[in-house]
Amino acid sequence: MAWDFETDPDFALELEWIDQFVSEEVEPLDHVLGSPWDIHAPGFQTLVRPLQRIVKARGLWACHLGPELGGQGFGQVKLALMNEILGRSEFAPVVFGAQAPDSGNSEILAHYGTVEQKSRYLAPLLANDIVSCFAMTEPQGGADPKQFKTLAQRDGDQWVLTGEKWFASNARYADFYIVMAITDPDVTVYQGATMFIVPASTPGVRILRNVGCGDGEQTHAYVSFDKVRLDECNVLGGVGQAFAVAQVRLGGGRVHHAMRVIGQAGKALDALCERALSRTTQGSLLAEKQMIQERIADSWIELEQFRLLVMRTAWRIDKYQDYRKVRKDISAVKAAMPKVLHDIAARALHIHGSIGASNEMPFANLVNRAFQMGLADGPTEVHKVTVAKQVLRDYSPSTALFPAYHRPTAQAAAREKFKAQL
Ligand SMILES: Cc1cc2nc3c(=O)[nH]c(=O)nc-3n(C[C@H](O)[C@H](O)[C@H](O)COP(=O)(O)OP(=O)(O)OC[C@H]3O[C@@H](n4cnc5c(N)ncnc54)[C@H](O)[C@@H]3O)c2cc1C
Question: Whose CA is nearest to atom 53 of ligand 1?
Fold first, then answer.
């Protein structure tokens, strides 16, 4: 019997420390600082750097990475327990050295980077001395890479990159971008695209505008690459290998988002319950009304179901150490995540009445974030298709006119089986 839902006692103590540290020291930063990626802002230096030193001294820095890269090699289950606490605060991931997209970008640099690329980009990225950006989506279409047009062509011993990228998160703060470009238009994009490391200061790189979601900072960039000249040493992971490279970051990244969403949805549920116990209308507490109780019950059940799915997926990643074997699980988590966050945040918003809908409460932003979660790293529809295809692999068609589970057919088979006894 190997089923076990316990956290080992030593790590449980560590989680208690993280919980207290995040709620007392980190969550308040969300109310006084701007973007967690604006690492050169004076407030970041004064308030975030000392907390990062405490986390490093405690041995909790960059826990998504193995020890060879300065992380703890915790594995995904422990990381899930940690990330659901970090998810409660905008600044917690950067305080713990595990913020997207740098976390995913560091994974691909570690996996595919050359020695030179690792020392130029990975080392400072892991130390949070610089931040990075991942630019794959294009303005004419993100969900379908076959629509991508950004082209990199060889010119002597250099590459010339031309095109536009859309919603490149944190490009405005990034020291370098990881950019997907077509290098062989004569084959499918899945075989003919290559990843390039593009330093933000390279001539020809220009942010056309920064786009915001909700009332947060405008951090998603519309970027133009106009005849940007790159050397062979800027190719990341080999020519034509862009999708293999992208998969390394997207697999882990999607699960890490889901872990943090548990924290965000949990925070909304906490607010919902506190309000239900605090507000009276028509002679009784909201908590005493059955329609409100249904919302509380649904929210709790949905969050627990989602958490179990995330934990099981984390456990399977640790077990197989191969993202291809957990594709169905990761896509299921990714597809479930926006709905859980949306439904719980929307209920929390509604139960708070007018103030819930206002910008004095976080719920409207959280509902908007649920939609973002349903698009970033691949839309929900695409992940549901993946789940369905993977599920269908375990089935085969019936050649009979009436299938075996058709009741008369099943009854006839049962009668035949037991004919001696009946
Ligand atoms: C907050 C946020 C951060 C992001 N950060 C980055 C980043 O750092 N780097 C980056 O490269 N990109 C980033 N993206 C872009 C993201 O990857 C794209 O939004 C996503 O791939 C969808 O592309 P699109 O926005 O062009 O939508 P479209 O491709 O135009 O999709 C339009 C609609 O079609 C739906 N759809 C798509 N496929 C199917 C299908 N097969 N069946 C039915 N419906 C379908 C979509 O869900 C959507 O509703 C980010 C997005 C968000 C919201």
Answer: 372
Could you tell me if 382 and 311 lie in one domain?
Answer: yes
Hey, what are 272's tokens? 């919902």
For 99-192, where are the E strands, in sequence order? 132-135, 151-155, 158-169, 176-182
CA distance 52 to 175: 20
Q: Could you report the per-residue pLDDT of 169-214, keeping only the tens digit for each?
A: 999 999 999 999 999 999 999 999 999 999 999 999 999 999 999 7
- Which residues have C-beta atoms less than 6 Å from ligand 1? 101, 134-137, 141-144, 167-169, 213, 220, 372, 375-376, 378-379, 381-382, 385
Pocket-testing residue among 134, 137, 260, 261, ligand 1, by greatest number of atoms within 8 A of Cβ: 137
Model pTM?
0.95
Total count of domains within the chain = 3
Q: Is residue 351 part of a domain?
A: yes
**pLDDT tens digits for 314-354?**
999 999 988 889 999 999 999 999 999 999 999 999 999 99
Host domain of residue 83: 9-99
Residues 317 and 361 in one domain: yes
Q: Looking at the structure, do residues 251 and 375 belong to the same domain, yes or no? A: yes
Q: In sequence order, what are the residues at sequence separation of 6 or more whose Cβ sits closer than 8 angstroms to the Cβ of residue 111?
A: 237, 245, 248
Distance 259 CA to ligand 1 centre (A): 21
